[in-house]
Specification:
Length: 324
């Protein structure tokens, strides 16, 4: 309801991935371009999204989309002339998303959503109209576009702070007016963050604009993959105020599970497993979330029980996790 009130041109909730189709929630009833997405590769529609009570603005059954396999993404075709996906000089853009990335140790860029730069032979190679990404390992927020012309250049804005890795869901957003070099504002978890144009510099030049497609979760031919889980991606042709961005985010820290003394028998150890430990170098970190317990008759840790997803497939625990 909050997102709809701000009139996005496209809104992908990932609440139900119907076969290869990802529904756009905007413009269906009045016959506007629906901008539905098509799955390429393997995109899971059964991931757990941000949920109550930790994120009370969501219900307890909210689902999200998992982008874990290389070469997997969602493509949205550009409808052509006067496309709501095209942004030129004087146009304002706001992009927002909920993200749960698996950040790596290198300096990779994880594509959340972007237009162009698909290596489609029908378009120029460096045709990035706009893109929202995260940078490893800091989780910094980045906005990227290419200025047009023979002397065009890349222009990248990067936030000075980022999101923690493996500690759960975060909300990110950027707003920018093309042609106004000082207009970009980035947001993490509902609050503005400072940043700088660290590649190509701030510019009032026009961006590359064509009819190449939008991709969620990757760019090129499936490279620069997001690697993680995405939810609630929305695109606007306006600048949302800081107050409206803040209205999206509410977080209630879970209480740390108390020790279950009644489960401990004489001669046994009870081991609690917690995941989602923040790697943020700050005392303002989220508490880890309890996952499961097991008992042992020795105080030795050569292994821990395997973790499985809803389909019964083994999956990795968060990096790091805690044994108590």
């Amino acid at each position: 309801q909050i997102i709809r009130a701000d009139a996005p041109v496209a809104y992908w909730r990932f609440e139900a991935i119907d076969g290869q189709r990802v529904a756009n929630e905007i413009g269906v009833a009045d016959d506007q371009s629906p901008l539905h997405g098509t799955v390429v590769g393997q995109v899971s529609g059964e991931e757990l999204g941000p949920r109550s009570p930790v994120f009370p603005k969501f219900d307890t059954g909210n689902r999200a989309a998992g982008f874990h396999a290389r070469g997997s993404y969602v493509r949205i075709a550009d409808p052509g002339e006067q496309s709501p996906l095209d942004f030129d000089t004087g146009d304002s853009i706001t992009i927002e998303a909920w993200v749960k990335p698996q950040l790596k140790s290198g300096g990779d860029f994880h594509y959340i959503i972007g237009k162009g730069r698909t290596n489609n032979p029908d378009f120029e190679r460096d045709n990035q109209n706009w893109a929202l990404r995260l940078k490893s390992p800091t989780g910094a927020l980045t906005f990227l576009f290419r200025s047009r012309g023979d002397d065009g250049d890349w222009h990248r804005w990067t936030s000075r702070e980022g999101i923690a890795g493996d500690d759960g869901w975060h909300h990110v957003a950027v707003s920018y007016t093309f042609g106004d070099k000082d207009s970009l504002v980035g947001y993490i978890d509902g609050r503005p963050v400072k940043g700088q144009w660290d590649y190509g510099g701030a510019t009032d030049r026009a961006p590359v604009v064509d009819h190449d497609e939008v991709r969620i979760g990757s760019t090129y031919h499936g490279a620069a993959a997001f690697g993680g889980t995405l939810d609630e991606i929305a695109l606007y042709r306006s600048v949302l105020s800081p107050q409206r961005i803040a209205a999206r985010y509410e977080y209630v820290a879970p209480e740390l599970r108390p020790i279950a003394w009644e489960q401990i028998s004489e001669g046994e150890f009870l081991v609690d497993i917690f995941e989602g430990l923040s790697d943020r170098k700050s005392w303002n970190f989220r508490p880890p979330q309890y996952v499961e317990s097991y008992t042992s008759d020795t105080l030795a840790f050569v292994d821990v029980p395997r973790k499985y997803n809803a389909r019964g497939l083994p999956v990795e625990r968060s990096n790091a996790y805690l044994l108590r």
